């Protein structure tokens, strides 16, 4: 996807508005105005050209699409400005068949004229079956990944858990522990598919539902519930970290470690050591980070858990202390363990993209920029564009380019991340990488791309405002 700077975007908006005014004075149809916009502005896609020809903002376009849903007697769709922005700017992103039909209806065009056709839309001759705004298939399916869950998925999981508790308030049978474990697994597997503050609320609500049943459950059921409460607490700690609430993360992760130790969940104990090491490292407590990482490595069972604790926790902690020889040994051991392991998805899993990301970051910390570049590139290539993992690896690659004397490329790459990922989905770790990149580019601020990046970073809304509310930040 070509990078278009914010300055150029503003110029596009002004020129498109002029073309629309001229076309309206001459009595041109919207179709002809859209064609004129595309002819004058080659960066503009057909979908965006039609919206500009109509003179609508994205919010107004979404309102018109919603009116089409209401005309069919359907509820408000889940479409938002961020989704429309991606569909307009990224050729890899396409709306579902349902959305394509309804957008075309709102714009007074056909899906073909809007450039919304894809293989399963080519045979579309009538409106697709409407599913009340579900956007499960709005995201591209790549690398064998399942479609993202909808925004309604999180509260629906909590509701099903509540129903299980209503059916068995005394927790006499296995239904409640099984539903609770399934809920925790859902949150772990879909961790990266929701903005952090939204996920935090969902996980917290589920954990709160389990508080009272813990006192009523039999010994056997209580063990399973404590295990699940521990996993939910661990997830809350990780999300709090990604919301830059490090003290809160420490509390949740410590609670998770206690639950894991109580029921003998060695995997959870090891993982929480790694997470607490990550938090300590972010707070500049590198000695504590190394100690926690070593405890996690000692507790880890199986090659994947060892690879994760070595690569995610110990390697970056040693690198932060500048202990190059020991860091290299940790990396070698992590690589060996990962080679013998089978990747697993989810927050408690580990994969090649994350493994290479941590190795690249350690190389940068140790001043080995040339070694970091291929690792960061491989990590980014293994991720779906727009995801948190992709953003992390891409920003790391920009940092490598900045250190290698390529400031314009570095700034353009980082700007592409900000254009692709809504602010509300940008984790605190991504913001920290942006801050580190800004420091690297401090002496080359005369470059236009660098100035534009700096302005974009400064324009990001605060993660948490003065009233303790998380920024929605969707564009």
From TrEMBL:
InterPro entries recorded for this chain? Cro/C1-type_HTH, TPR-like_helical_dom_sf
SUPFAM superfamilies, alphabetically?
Answer: TPR-like
Ranges where the HTH cro/C1-type domain occurs: 78-114
Q: Which protein is depicted?
A: HTH cro/C1-type domain-containing protein
